[in-house]
Design goal:
This protein is α/β, with parallel strands linked by helices. The protein folds into two domains: 228 residues, Rossmann fold, CATH 3.40.50; 183 residues, Glycogen Phosphorylase B (Rossmann fold, 3-Layer(aba) Sandwich). It contains 20 helices and 14 strands. Strands 3-2-1-4-5-6-7 form a seven-stranded parallel β-sheet, with helices on both faces. Strands 10-11-9-8-12-13-14 form a seven-stranded parallel β-sheet. Strand 8, helix 13 and strand 9 form a beta-alpha-beta unit. The longest helix is centred in the last third of the chain and has 16 residues. The protein is globular. The two termini are 36 Å apart.
């Protein structure tokens, strides 16, 4: 039955591709289609890119965050096995980040998940190992790799409750794909238990922790530039709330809070920058004074209360400049983003109740007091209460740092699992 589903997926590939293009064409993310022409060669495997080495350790990551999370692991793998590293990314942004990292001997876009294209990719590049980061599972990629003799593993594995239920429903194709996976390194005990509900041998699933927490940056880039921006805005003496990786609903919550708290400054860093046009409309309709990071020169608008960060690579420094942080995707039902990126900078972390992407981290922050639960109704009040109590604010900041440091060590555990399967 699983093979029948796989064949059906590949037969329907042309129709599905057209539907996906149509979806993006009529969505707020239509700008992503502009890159289709330039990406065509890599997506459809017209040729191999540049000089091809052999016996690659192939790491597949979805986008920027996942690529950055495996840089240290890739360095350790190269040192341990003296083999080149091939990285594929699902997004051009992820690929572009990888191209700047010397540890990756080659970085390309992943081919479209169509069985003949994946087989051609494997034939042209000749990898011997495939390590999938987090949960970017593509059935043809996994099955073609397994049938080509690659050792397939999942590192820093995530699996939400919703996804686990969906995989159980799709057990035929999931079982066929996962039969080719030799090991899974889960981020948390809860995630490990979810994998064990799937058609997998229990001995294949390991608890190793989250490797992202080993690369938490306590000295973010651009910190000096952000200090200059804060000075230009005249915000040096004002409390600042940096809201990271926000979504539409959360941006409305933030503008509402800004109206209630006129003395508080807000930095807004959206999860998806291609939504900039719509975020600007929200800010304009709010009647609040705001500035846009990419347009700031030597002089900033007087009386600015909100700064929209519309360029990548600034989030860590913007968190560092904050008095209080909010991590998005948690009021909106997206499961929450990287809570510890803010916590490791010794900043109190506000988060909503939808934190299923990192329940262990959220629980630790809430338990220690480094994190405070918020919603659309109490968001402004929680900020006001924290700012009115400097002792509680400092305790929350220290507790957030302690919570962040307690999650380190996953990279070493992951390497120990890989060593059991990797061919030297």
């Amino acid at each position: 039955m699983g093979y029948f589903v796989l064949i059906l997926i590949n037969l329907l590939f042309p129709v599905g591709g057209l539907l996906i293009i149509a979806y993006f064409l009529f969505s707020s993310r239509r700008n992503l289609l502009k890159s289709l022409k330039s990406e065509f060669s890599q997506r459809f495997m017209l040729r191999a890119e540049g000089q091809v080495l052999r016996d690659y350790i192939w790491i597949h990551a979805a986008s920027v965050g996942e690529v950055r999370s495996v840089i240290k692991l890739a360095q350790d793998l190269k040192e341990a096995y003296n083999r080149p590293i091939l990285l594929t990314a699902a997004t051009a942004a992820g690929r572009n980040v990888a191209l700047k990292e010397p540890v990756f001997d080659k970085a390309v876009l992943m081919p479209v998940d169509f069985y003949p294209l994946v087989k051609r990719f494997i034939r042209l590049y000749g990898p011997k190992t495939l390590l999938i980061v987090e949960s970017d599972f593509w059935p043809n990629m996994i099955i073609a790799s397994g049938r080509s003799g690659l050792d397939v593993g999942v590192i820093n594995a995530r699996l939400s409750v919703k996804s686990a239920k969906r995989y159980i429903f799709l057990s035929q194709i999931v079982g066929l794909a996962f039969r080719n996976i030799k090991f899974i390194c889960a981020q948390s005990q809860a995630i490990k238990e979810r994998y064990l509900t799937l058609p997998l041998e229990p001995s294949k699933v390991y608890l190793t922790g989250n490797i992202k927490y080993d690369i938490l940056n306590t000295s973010p880039a651009r910190a000096g530039e952000v200090e200059e921006i804060i000075t230009a805005l005249g915000w040096q003496s004002s409390p600042i709330v940096t809201a990271g990786s926000t979504h539409e609903e959360e941006e409305r919550v933030i503008t509402a809070a800004a109206k209630i708290l006129p003395d508080v400054k807000f930095i807004l860093t959206p999860r998806h920058l291609e939504r900039k046009k719509y975020i600007l409309q929200t800010l304009e309709q709010s009647g609040l004074k705001f500035a846009v990071l990419s347009k700031l020169k030597n002089k900033a608008p007087q009386g600015t209360q909100i700064l929209l960060a519309d360029t990548m690579g600034w989030l860590g420094a913007l968190y560092q400049a904050a008095t209080i942080t909010f991590v998005g995707g948690s009021i909106t039902k997206k499961g929450g983003h990287n809570f510890l990126e803010a916590a490791v900078l010794e900043k109190p972390v506000l988060l909503g109740r939808h934190f299923y992407n990192a329940p262990d981290v959220a629980a630790k922050l809430l338990e220690t007091g480094g994190g405070i639960l918020v919603n659309a109704d109490n968001f402004a009040k929680v900020i006001e209460d924290l700012l009115s109590n400097p002792v509680r604010l400092q305790r929350a900041a220290h507790a957030a740092l302690e919570a962040a440091l307690s999650f380190k060590g996953a990279t070493k555990k992951t390497l120990e699992v890989i060593e059991k399967y990797e061919r030297k």
